[in-house]
User: Which sequence fits this backbone?
């Protein structure tokens, strides 16, 4: 999927600047190779650190990241910036069953059925909705997870991002789309962020040509909330900012215990020019409902 995303960005850059020479440099990170819990390896930042090191060292000029994988408790390397955010793709999570499975919905699964996901946010919301199900860790890139699901059938279903399936051309595997009131997305879900060296103004200008202002505003609100919560990679935090064409921003923030048994939930609105203030307000309001206590009680 990372390569598909890089190809997509390169095509967009060539369309914006005809004749531009773009080389894609593949970097396999420790997060890609690791099959255990991300917390044991250092959290979501394990997908970024080698790539950001290559950026800072000058081995690459720009990096493409899934914004949902950019940690909120670790600052970006000094001298770098996210110059562009592509327009947000579908933020929904979907249920995928092994090929040949008789099941097509979560509701149709019997008590005790196993669901594969290594995302604490997904596990918490799934167990809140269906506490009779069992959640099993299930990592790897999307292609390898699909292949393992079909060949080994280690679980009865997996939860994946629709955007990820779309990007690798496997949207056909989505059997059920989970409503947002059942599965609130991760902060930055569905967004590709384009990072470069701040001093490299030529590259920054190219990336800004792909920037979607509406997406940037929503990401700013969501990530301000994430920073305010000081969540780590094991924190079940969900956040989703929306807005009508001419209306205010609306930000929903949620923090769960890992089993989904306890929830802090806040929704608030503000003007588009106050995205970061909105995110900070929602984080403070969540803290008033016990969010920090929930987060601090989770090992990391």
Assistant:
């Amino acid at each position: 999927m990372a390569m598909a995303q890089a190809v997509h960005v390169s095509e967009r850059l060539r369309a914006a600047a005809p004749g531009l020479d773009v080389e894609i440099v593949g970097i396999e990170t420790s997060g890609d190779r690791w099959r255990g819990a991300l917390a044991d390896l250092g959290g979501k930042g394990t997908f970024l650190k080698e790539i950001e090191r290559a950026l800072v060292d000058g081995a690459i000029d720009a990096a493409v990241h899934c914004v949902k994988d950019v940690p909120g408790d670790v600052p970006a390397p000094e001298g770098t910036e996210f110059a562009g955010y592509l327009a947000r793709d579908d933020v929904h999570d979907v249920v995928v069953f092994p090929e040949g499975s008789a099941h097509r919905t979560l509701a149709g699964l019997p008590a005790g059925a196993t669901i594969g996901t290594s995302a604490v946010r997904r596990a918490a919301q799934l167990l809140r909705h269906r506490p009779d199900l069992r959640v099993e860790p299930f990592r790897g890139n999307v292609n390898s997870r699909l292949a393992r699901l079909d060949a080994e059938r280690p679980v009865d279903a997996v939860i994946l991002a629709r955007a990820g399936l779309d990007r690798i051309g496997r949207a056909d595997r989505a059997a059920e789309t989970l409503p947002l009131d059942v599965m609130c997305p991760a902060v930055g879900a569905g967004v590709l962020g384009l990072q470069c060296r701040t001093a490299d103004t030529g590259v920054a200008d190219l990336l800004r040509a792909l920037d979607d202002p509406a997406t940037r505003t929503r990401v700013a609100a969501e990530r301000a909330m994430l920073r305010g919560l000081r969540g780590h990679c094991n924190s079940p935090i969900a956040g989703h900012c929306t807005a009508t064409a001419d209306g205010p921003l609306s930000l929903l923030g949620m923090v769960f215990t890992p089993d989904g048994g306890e929830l802090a939930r806040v929704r608030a609105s503000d003007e588009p020019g106050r995205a970061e203030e909105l995110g900070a307000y929602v984080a403070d309001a969540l803290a008033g409902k016990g969010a920090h206590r929930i987060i601090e009680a989770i090992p990391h």
